[in-house]
Amino acid sequence: MERKKITFDSFIRGVILGAIIIGILMLFKRLSSVLLPFFIAWLIAYLIYPLVTFFQYKLRLKYRIASIFCALLTY
Questions:
Q1: Which of 35, 48, 51, 61 is least surrounded by Cβ atoms within 10 Å, i.e. has the fewest?
Q2: Sign of CA dihedral 33, 34, 39, 41
Q3: Interatomic CA distance for residues 13 and 26, integer angstroms
Q4: Burial (CB count within 10 angstroms: exposed 0-12, middle 13-18, buried 19+), residue 27
Q5: Are 70 and 56 contacting, i.e. CB atoms less than 8 angstroms apart?
Q6: In this predicted structure, what is the pLDDT of residue 6?
Q7: Which residues, in sequence order, are CB contacts of 53 under 8 Å at separation 6+?
Q8: Residues 12-25: what's their mean pLDDT?
Q9: Do 55 and 67 meet the contact criterion of CB atoms below 8 Å apart?
């Protein structure tokens, strides 16, 4: 089994990649209180979408907003 040689170029790329990952994680930690409501809203929209399409296409509601309200009322 051959070991891959670590060159200066691959070392610098690894350090830069590690710094970027650490920076993104620190940014998420700092913005978590702001991003949490958006994540929850995305999750609710993701879960209700099949019900909205059911109301819109199977029950043939004319307006999508009516489908959304019906889905929210049944959920």
A1: 35
A2: positive
A3: 20
A4: exposed
A5: no
A6: 81
A7: 67
A8: 97
A9: yes
Side chain identity, residue 28: F
Contact 71, 46 (CB under 8 A): no
Indicate if the pLDDT at residue 1 is higher than 80.
Answer: no
Helix (H, G, I), strand (E, B) or coil at 1: coil
| Digit-coded pLDDT (tens) for 27-70 | 999 998 998 999 999 999 999 999 999 999 999 999 999 999 99
- List, as one string, the DSSP characters of 3-57: PPPPPHHHHHHHHHHHHHHHHHHHHHHHHHHHHHHHHHHHHHHHHHHHHHHIIII
Q: What is the dihedral of CA 60, 48, 25, 28, to 10 degrees?
A: 90
The tokens of 57 are what? 């296409």
